[in-house]
Design brief:
Elements (H helix, E strand, L loop, with lengths): L8 H12 L4 H12 L9 H16 L2 H15 L4 E6 L5 E7 L1 H10 L2 E4 L11 E8 L5 E9 L4 H15 L5 E4 L3 H10 L4 E4 L1 H5 L2 H5 L1 H4 L2 H11 L6 H14 L6 H8 L22 H11 L8 H26 L11 H9 L2 H16 L1 E9 L2 E8 L7 H18 L3 H21 L3 H4 L2 H9 L27 H10 L22 H5 L1
Parallel strand pairs: 3-6, 6-7
Antiparallel strand pairs: 1-2, 2-5, 3-4, 4-5, 8-9
Helix pairs in contact: 1-2, 1-3, 1-21, 2-3, 3-21, 6-7, 11-12, 16-17, 18-19
């Protein structure tokens, strides 16, 4: 009944917490119903939940960017190792943001040999491009080193982003892998003087079918010949160049513009050019970045404010680090079973994580039982042998989390007994009343405005210095050659209408029809 409808403090906090987890107001209402048992027991309607979510967004709207900058500047004051920087345009609208927390910087110090970064879209209502920096940890899982938001995908924005990354981490990675974005191609060598820039091999090879035409693309012998050259880790630079030119001549592609361009850029993506780098084979594509982008995209949405986006981002990072902590705990005190009497396998079990050890163990076992030595040669101080196959920081939220766990446990234990439910309700009401009587200010400090401010934060300045950005427009930062397939798809997508004079679909109408004069006469 309407008289029983009232959105109290518990409802408000629940809606705010669901918003932080990227759960909408209606789903929040349904989830609340699942907790209490029936819609009549919720005490509010779905519209009430929507209205409160609207009030949250109304509070954020004008000071969205200001709330975020003040929040991160406050973190920077609390933790000297927290890195944050931002930039505004000529209208004082937020245009660029970069941040890296202490844990992320420590992860880079441990695993920052190879960095992959790739832009992703549709993560916020302003259409700012989200750019996380990704690497691989000692469990071969993706780990985020830093992240940024930019309004434009131009050279200046990427230079600013990479320069902040370099300042935050203190040094450059061994090499960095991106797609063939023209702006990234200019920005990376501008900022990173010693790091090697590498293009994603998958992006390049996935375009082959569109570039060569339908006939050659269906030729399996061509595909095998090209893949044997491109993906071979063992050949030298000279061998690659010779085999590549042989494939091009064999299939009449020596003068093909795109293949010539890829050959000129071979030092940026062919495996032979990265054999001398430590960890050179760890990443060949931006698939890790794309996987992380998909993970981040799954926990946010294109309508999110900046405040919501950063809540969603922190939730995704917490999940990533929780999984890493579980893997670390699984490795502590665990000695996997060895399969050979070799000392190298026991040593690998002691120094590697479980995930990596099992991969190394498979190679050791394959080397023992599935391989045989076919050649041996001394190269300086190295002896080359050829084989043949025969393969946690504590925080103030800890106590609060335990209270919620205890509360849900009590509800679960009492739900099948009306006496227990009544007893639990009585205890909670008495406890609530004692809290209110003990502190008369609690009603004013934790009311609707208190929940709203706890969600978005409080703007300390009376004047808004950093305004929310305008909706960015990014359709790529440079021109590239479009394939015949892409051009045909664009032509097919263009809507045409029938001319009422000649009844043709040629992109004109009765006003400019070539046959208009004939019909008039």
């Amino acid at each position: 009944m309407r008289i029983n409808r009232k959105l109290d403090l518990g409802h408000q906090i629940f809606v705010a917490n669901c918003a932080k987890a990227n759960i909408g107001s209606i789903k929040s209402w349904k989830l609340y119903r699942q907790m209490v048992g029936d819609y009549t027991d919720v005490g509010a309607t779905g519209v009430d939940f929507q209205n409160f979510k609207r009030d949250l967004m109304a509070y954020i709207r004008g000071g969205d960017a200001q709330l975020i900058t003040e929040k991160f500047l406050h973190k920077k004051e609390l933790w000297s190792s927290f890195f944050f920087d931002y930039d505004v345009d000529e209208y004082d609208q937020l245009s660029r943001v970069f941040w890296a927390d202490p844990v992320a910087r420590r992860n880079f110090a441990c695993f920052g040999d190879v960095v992959s970064f790739d832009a992703t879209y549709r993560t916020n209502r302003y259409k700012l491009v989200f750019v996380p920096f990704t690497g691989i940890d000692n469990h071969k899982k993706s780990v985020t080193f830093a992240a940024g938001l930019i309004a434009k995908e131009d050279v200046e924005s990427y230079v600013w982003l990479l320069d902040n990354f370099k300042r935050a981490m203190g040094h450059e990675p061994t090499y960095i892998i991106t797609d063939q974005d023209p702006a990234m191609r200019v920005a990376v060598p501008t900022v990173f003087k010693s790091a090697r820039h590498r293009f994603c091999m998958w992006h390049i090879m996935s375009k082959v079918g569109d570039k060569v035409g339908s006939v050659v693309a269906k030729d399996q012998s061509f595909r095998r010949a090209l893949n044997d050259v491109v993906w071979d880790e063992s050949i030298t630079i000279e061998e690659f160049e010779s085999k590549w030119l042989g494939v091009m001549e064999a299939y009449g592609l020596s003068e093909h513009r795109w293949f010539r361009q890829m050959f000129d850029l071979r030092a940026f993506w062919i495996l032979a050019f990265f054999r001398d780098l430590p960890m050179g084979g760890l990443l060949r594509t931006t698939s890790r970045s794309e996987s992380q982008n998909s993970s981040f995209g799954g926990c946010t949405n294109c309508h999110a404010s900046l405040v919501e986006f950063f809540f969603h981002f922190e939730g995704a990072i917490d999940c990533q680090r929780h999984k890493q902590a579980k893997l670390n705990a699984a490795c502590e005190g665990h000695l996997p079973v060895v399969k050979t009497p070799l000392a190298i396998e026991r040593y690998a079990a002691a120094v590697y994580t479980i995930t990596v050890f099992y991969e190394v163990q498979a190679e050791i076992v394959a080397g023992c039982f599935d391989c045989s030595v076919v050649s041996s040669a001394v190269d300086g101080v190295l002896k080359r042998v050829g084989v043949e196959d025969t393969y946690g920081v504590a925080n103030s939220r800890g106590d609060s989390k335990q209270v919620w766990n205890d509360f849900y446990s009590c509800v679960a234990l009492a739900r099948h007994s009306s006496d227990r439910i009544m007893e639990l309700s009585r205890v909670l009401k008495e406890l609530k009343l004692s809290f209110v009587n003990a502190d008369t200010s609690i009603g004013t400090s934790i009311g609707k405005s208190g929940v709203v401010q706890a969600f978005g934060g409080v703007i300390t300045s009376s004047n808004i210095l950093v305004h929310p950005p305008t909706v960015a427009k990014n359709k790529g930062s440079g021109k590239r050659f479009k394939s015949a397939k892409e051009l045909a798809a664009e032509r097919a997508a263009k809507s045409t209408r029938e001319c009422k004079t000649c009844h043709k679909f040629d992109g004109h109408d009765s006003r400019n029809c070539p046959l208009k004069d004939l019909f008039i006469k």
